[in-house]
Amino acid sequence: MFKKTKQSQIPDINQQEISTLIGDGFVVTGELTGTSVIRIDGKVTGNVKTGNGIILGEKGIIVGDIETTSAIIYGTVNGKVKVSQLEIKKTGRVNGDIKTETLEIEFGAQYNGNLEMKKLIQVEEKTV
């Protein structure tokens, strides 16, 4: 009789535990894959694919593609970004194409590339 529409729920990255940290001064070459949140303050040359999220610190650099649920960019990305939620902070730089459902860009952030915004997935609930 009544229909209730809600958007797909994406967990807030700020409420999740960071299980992996690549600190300032560290350089990682190769593909990173995992299921939890990762914070990168060093440099990664290669693709980064995580299940729950990426936080790229101000000194963090990723030279490669990103694929995850949620990303907060304070540093520099040189590659494609495919996420459900993306925040580019005022110190953030993205040089590459972005595919996302939601995008937040702070004043002062830089972005060079193509943007593709997907519609949010709608889930219909029927109540009896």
Q: Please, could you describe this protein's structure?
A:
The chain is mostly beta strands and 128 residues long. The chain has one domain (2-127). Helix content is 0%, strand content 55%. The protein has no helices and 20 strands. The protein has strands at 2-7, 18-22, 27-29, 32-34, 37-40, 43-45, 48-50, 53-56, 61-63, 66-67, 70-73, 76-78, 81-82, 85-88, 93-95, 98-100, 102-105, 110-112, 115-117, 122-127. The strands form four sheets. The chain has a six-stranded parallel sheet with strand order 2-5-8-11-14-17, with no helix packed on it. The chain has a six-stranded parallel sheet with strand order 3-6-9-12-15-18, with no helix packed on it. The relative contact order is 0.19. Residues 1-8 have low confidence and may be disordered.
Tags for this model:
128 residues; mainly beta; six-stranded parallel sheet; 20 strands; 55% strand; globular; disordered N terminus
**CA distance, first residue to last residue:** 6 Å
| Major pleated sheet | 6 strands, parallel
- Helix/strand order, N-terminal first: EEEEEEEEEEEEEEEEEEEE
- The number of helical elements comes to 0
How much strand?
over 45%
Helicity level: under 10%
Sheet with most strands: strand arrangement? 2-5-8-11-14-17
Radius of gyration, taken over Cα atoms and rounded to an integer in Å: 16 Å
Query: Got a strand count?
Result: 20
Structural class: mainly beta
Shape designation: globular
The overall pLDDT, averaged over residues, is 86
Count of individual domains: 1
Low-pLDDT runs of 5+ residues are 1-8
